[in-house]
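Posting this for the archive.
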Amino acid sequence: MAFATTFTAPAAHAATAASPSASTSQSSAGTSGSCSDADVAICVQSATAVLTSTSGYSTSIRIFNSGDDSLKAGTLTVSMNAMYSFTSRVDMQDWANGDAHIPTQSVLGTVQVPEIKAGKNASVSIVVPADSTQLKSIFSWGPKPLLFSYSNGIEKDGASVNSFVTRSTDGLKTAGTPALSMTVVLPLTASSWSGSASAVKELQVGTGKQSSGSSSSSSSDTKQTKPTQSSTSSGTDATASSSSSSSSSSSSSSQAGSDSSDSDTEHYSSIVTLNEKAETTQRRQLELLKKYPILQSIADPLYLQTFPIPPQVTGIMQPADFDITAFAAKGSSAYTNAGISDSMWDNSLAQKALQTATGDSNSKLDSYAWQGKGNWTQRALDTARKQGYSAAISLTDFASDDDSASAHTGKYTVKTASGDMSVLVAQKQLSLLAQNAATTKSADAETTSAGRIARLMAQSALYQMEQPYAERVLLIAMKSSEDLAYADQVMSNLSQASWLKLTDLATLKKAESYKSGQTATQSIPTASGLSSSELMAVNSSLSALAASKDDISRFSTSILSSKEQSESSPTTSGTSDAQALARGDAAQTGQQSDDASGWISQLSLAQSTIAIHSLDGTGRNSSLPSTAAQLAGALLSGVRITPSESVTVVTETASLPVTVSNDHPYAVHVIVSSKTDSAEIVTSREAQIEIPAHSEVQVTLPIRVAAAGKANASLVLLDRKGQAFGTTHTTRITSTLRLSDMSGLAILVVAGIFGLLGLWRQFNRKKDPDE
């Protein structure tokens, strides 16, 4: 069986009732919340994870009946083995998986479960006071096996699930040992970004102009003064936010410098924005960091810019949580083609983005290369180090060769072509549990929050007991925003555990490396670790982004009028894009001027901003390349042929009028191409045309008719290199040829002459004698 609950485990040291009690209640709710596919499921909604001398034990359980028949009344029992101590992680995992048989003869409590009808469930709870005989019988600290079992006398209706409860050292007469040092880090990143359709339209027509206020739902909001951050901060209290927009924007086009002529109401939305839940998420992140100052935070500096008042953080990661591991696996050329230059995510750019977020040009923090979807291979570490990152956070890979070893300091020192790299490795089991994930699929109790909290505390106690006097610093890596309530419970339990000492990242970085040099090199994964589906997703995004970048370049060089194009470049340089991205002034860099260079720079920067957010380490922004495609598509579709009515021709020659519109703020020069499906009715093949900004121009294509009939003329626009773009339009041409011109008169004259000659021959020829 497995746990299932919508409630988190209570704090480890919460006091319980003074006397044992049990309660039951019948629910008419269905089994949608059941934690198991079995007909009978035990789901623990909450449970005390850590026992102290005053805590007691309490638990709330729900029994689900997913079968077709009523479940006979039975008994739920919670029992443990007070004398048993786990001595290895293998024994602990076997118990969690249900593969070990450990007697649990010490019954903490029992409760009667009423009859449960098919598709219904019943809730029960047990409270054991701290002074109970069962709890006082625990004489040694550490993790203990805990068993939840249900029985009603019918074998097929029986159910059980294995879990843990940990006795702290509080109140026990045991020799004290040094606490195990542990660093907990929270990545401060957005859960997802979305493209802005309104921003695409503003960029297309060239009306985007942003004031100094940050992009938000309120055009009059202005950026508040932000607190200074220093490189020595280590998770200090977060500054509370006094206001927040419901749609925060990325730094790529927010916080632009204000022009003196700009009105306060002029507003340009960022090309990528956060959803409406961003305000709630940011507020909860701030509350979590303020509640637990020792919680270390590593922030995406572009995400940090979306806070009205950003929190003080421990360090920063690469901008937009860019996936360096995937970049190393694919190579730089594919990313350059997609619009991402190396300078857009290096350490110097990250520091400049931080300064924009804090409003302090002297702000500087330690930077850490955060792991993406792939492994930290030697190539990936070389790449990160070359980009200026001297430390990397490893979430899973380096510990793969140490699963059977005792828990050790999570630090490796690896040699790269650009210098040594400190790889801070998260402890695998503890990090999985802290991320609200199970250690294995077979660990049934870990399918819910209550079970994972209990296992987390038990596992951490085991690691301290493995080497109680060894100096070690373990790293736990959390998730960013999806499980903030669960993260609160994790920090509450860890911070109160008597066998743990929470430390900062500086302590871990200064600790002696577990492995270094050649020994550490042997621990580096040799494969990227990217699955075929992940590689396909990366390739798909890169291809789509490269196409959008090419379309913008093509528009600049082959569609813009030559007088506009002569002074504009197809794309800004990587360094220019990166600096604007860091400063958050994408809108201002593209302010309209006498030539189109600023506008094209703005378009290119918008595409690059979309690109770097698309290729983040979470894989949650795979829909963003479609926004880049919309941006490029808007450029090409902004120059179009206005559909014309059918044309009727009554002479040998005529004209076909074609109207071309230009929605853009600068003139374009294109070619109108026409082809007919008839050899008797043809038009001229091409006509050059220049259309001023926000205007339309009509051009006429000559029509020549050799015979009466019908034809379809296909009209399409070509760039100056002869490549078609936009929609092909078809115009119907109908010819009813009349002899009303000089050629018609000539035909009549010739016909008359031949007629007269025929009459003359008829009267003047000699008749045959036989006639």
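DSSP finds 21 helices and 31 strands in the chain. The longest helix spans residues 532-558.
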